[in-house]
Structures are given as structure tokens and as C-alpha cells.
Structure to design on (383 residues):
């Protein structure tokens, strides 16, 4: 497939799985012949993403633009929207693709202004969890969900990473009245390998952001629960707003000698530090860390949240209820007692992920959506 499309991707923070998705998609679209640009926050990301940023600058014909963006709603958001309008108008883009709650809001508000100016731009939105993680029972949740409802009419197409996210959007906000497609995240072929453990590898490794949503506290409590019978060691890889809180909890639970915090590391390096990857999340969309662990043929313990069950396919994987310390402790104990079933499932899961979840498939499906579904104006939900 070739494309003469001009595409501008909008997101806020260039970190985590959302940034990886935009990075891989933008490069893939450029490979199809599209002219691509990316706009994101200038104050987050740091040196950890320097290589990826450089790659985007080298391959995006419409450039990489970084401007200040706030995490919370504020008056500064209108200045950001105005800058995106100017950028998109100058580039004469065909597609504005917003990612995450903030990126999606920026893209849709900018798209509405551009259409009023007579531009024939299509606006696509991928939530990546975002507002879908908020509970309508909280004030902040009601605020974000109300904003989503107000912005829905300004959306020309939705791309969800999972069936879970599509259903969650319909439940919380309403059924989209425009074309919809489900396109899961994917990995590159070189990411599939058989991992090698380092000499100092411990029993379990967590890799991800250190915040409550990710369930690091649940993992620590589960480890503490099995110390008297199956004492296990773990390394926590990553950084985030709740890092100090988790370190205090580890000390309080008496896990000091058995749990270490390694800071941010590349996934491949992190996987070598533990014999089993644990994903204890309370909530997820379609986590890259599960795909990456599967690609590395790592034994895996994960929660039954978000799109994680969709990654497993027909693999008989005993997923753990989110937030359930006892159930997670039981799986940790099972691995320490008999790792062989976990190793066998890792081989099966790697084979499944390699055939189903690739960057090539992801990029093709999204470009096809831009070209066919949006121009045809028909609604379709496809797995």
C-alpha cells in the first residue's frame, strides 16, 4: 500500500506505551509514503527517549514539534490548541490523529477550528486508556467523561487498541456515531527472541510506571504474604509519582532485603533481571509490557484487566483478578514451587503474539482505516 496522506499525530507526554505506539506508527506510515508529523509536550520525556525522538525527526516529513502541554485541564490548553491549528493548517494535513485524553482533546478541538476555516481534515482519536481509566463515581472522572461526550461529535473516526477499550468507551461515554476500528498494538520482528538471565537474576521482575494504577503495592503485599513459606525476591524497574510510597511500603512490609528498585531500564535489560515478569495492574488498556514479555519468551503472571485477556488468545493463562493480593500471592507461590508450566505457556504465548501482534499489521490496518473507512463514511467495528 502506498499513501500520499499528510498525517499529524497529537499526544501529550512522550513516555510509556502511548509514545511507543505513536513512534512506531509514525515511522510505519512514513514507510508507506505518507508525510507524517508529531506534536507533543516539550517538558516530559527527558534523555531516556532521545534516540526515539531523533528517529522521528529524521523520518517525519512534517517534523517533530514540541510545545508546553499541561497534564491537567487549564487555560493554557487553548494556547496549545491554537498552535496545533496553525501547525496543521500550514502543513495542510489530511488526518489529525489524537492519542490519549489530552492528545485526543487537542486534535478534536483543533480539527473543529480547521473545518470552520474550510479545511477538509479528518480527526481520528485513540484513547489509549486515558479518560477510560477514570471512574464516573469521582468528580474528576465525571469531568473527564463529560469532556469526552462534548468532543465526541468532533471525531471522524475511533481506533481502539482492544475490544475492551471499545466496550468501555461505549459504556462510559456512548456508542460512537462514526467509523470505528479495533487495531491492537504490535512489535517488530527483531523483538522476538529467547531471553537470557543475568547471573544476579531474582525470582520476579516488574517493569513499568510506578503509580498506584499499575498495582506495584499489590505485588509488594503479595510478596510479603508468601515470605514465611516461599520467600521470593523481586526487582522493581521503572519510575513514577508513587515511587517513594512504594519504597516506604516495601520497608514497612519487611521486604527491604528481598526487593530492590532499579530505576528505569530498557525492557530487554529488565527481563534479564528476573525469572518471571509480573504485571499486577489494577487497570490497563493494551499494555506493551505484556507483548514484550511474551516476545522474550518470559514466564508471565498478569491480571485479568483491560485488553490483557485479548493478548492471550486461546492460551490457557491463569490471569489474576486486579487488586486481589491473595490471588496474586497464590500465583507467585505456584511459580516458585513449579516454574515448568509457566515456561511452557511462555513458549506458546510467544508463538501466538508473533503471528498476531506486529507493527506491520498495526500500521497497515490504521492506514487502511484512514484511506477507506473515513473516506467512505461508513461505520464498521472490526477485530
Amino acid at each position: 500500500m502506498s499513501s500520499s496522506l499528510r498525517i499529524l499525530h497529537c499526544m501529550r507526554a512522550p513516555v510509556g506505551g502511548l509514545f511507543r505506539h505513536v513512534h512506531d506508527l509514525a515511522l510505519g506510515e512514513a514507510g508507506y509514503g505518507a508525510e507524517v508529523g508529531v506534536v507533543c509536550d516539550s517538558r516530559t520525556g527527558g534523555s531516556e527517549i532521545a534516540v526515539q525522538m531523533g528517529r522521528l525527526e529524521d523520518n517525519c516529513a512534517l517534523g517533530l514539534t514540541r510545545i508546553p502541554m499541561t497534564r491537567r485541564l487549564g487555560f493554557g490548553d487553548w494556547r496549545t490548541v491554537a498552535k496545533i491549528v496553525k501547525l496543521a493548517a500550514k502543513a495542510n494535513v489530511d488526518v489529525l490523529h489524537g492519542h490519549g485524553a489530552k492528545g485526543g482533546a487537542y486534535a478534536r478541538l483543533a480539527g473543529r477550528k480547521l473545518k470552520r476555516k474550510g479545511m477538509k481534515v479528518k480527526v481520528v482519536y485513540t484513547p489509549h486508556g486515558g479518560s477510560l481509566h477514570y471512574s464516573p463515581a469521582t468528580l474528576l472522572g465525571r469531568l473527564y467523561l463529560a469532556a469526552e461526550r462534548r468532543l465526541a461529535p468532533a471525531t471522524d473516526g475511533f481506533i481502539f487498541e482492544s475490544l475492551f477499550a471499545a466496550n468501555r468507551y461505549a459504556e462510559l461515554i456512548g456508542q460512537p456515531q462514526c467509523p470505528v476500528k479495533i487495531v491492537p498494538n504490535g512489535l517488530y520482528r527483531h523483538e522476538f527472541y529467547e531471553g537470557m538471565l543475568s547471573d544476579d537474576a531474582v525470582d520476579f521482575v516488574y517493569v513499568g510506571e510506578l503509580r498506584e494504577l499499575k498495582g506495584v503495592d499489590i505485588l509488594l503485599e503479595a510478596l510479603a504474604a508468601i515470605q514465611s513459606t516461599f520467600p521470593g525476591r523481586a526487582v522493581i524497574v521503572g519510575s513514577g509519582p508513587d515511587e517513594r510510597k512504594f519504597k516506604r511500603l516495601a520497608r514497612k512490609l519487611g521486604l527491604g532485603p528481598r526487593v530492590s528498585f532499579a530505576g528505569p531500564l530498557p525492557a530487554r535489560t529488565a527481563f534479564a533481571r528476573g525469572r518471571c515478569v509480573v504485571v499486577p495492574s489494577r487497570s490497563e488498556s493494551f499494555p506493551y509490557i505484556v507483548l514484550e514479555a511474551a516476545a522474550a519468551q518470559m514466564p508471565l503472571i498478569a491480571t485479568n484487566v483491560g485488553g490483557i485477556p485479548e493478548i492471550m488468545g486461546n492460551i490457557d493463562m491463569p490471569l489474576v483478578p486486579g487488586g486481589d493480593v491473595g490471588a496474586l500471592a497464590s500465583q507467585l507461590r505456584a511459580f516458585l514451587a513449579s516454574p515448568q508450566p509457566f515456561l511452557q505457556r511462555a513458549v506458546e504465548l510467544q508463538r501466538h503474539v508473533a503471528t498476531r501482534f506486529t507493527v506491520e499489521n498495526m500500521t497497515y490496518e490504521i492506514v487502511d482505516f484512514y484511506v477507506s473507512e473515513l473516506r467512505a463514511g461508513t461505520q464498521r467495528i472490526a477485530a
Q: What stands out?
A: The longest helix spans residues 359-376. The first strand starts at residue 6 and ends at 10. Residues 12 and 292 are 23 Å apart (CA to CA).
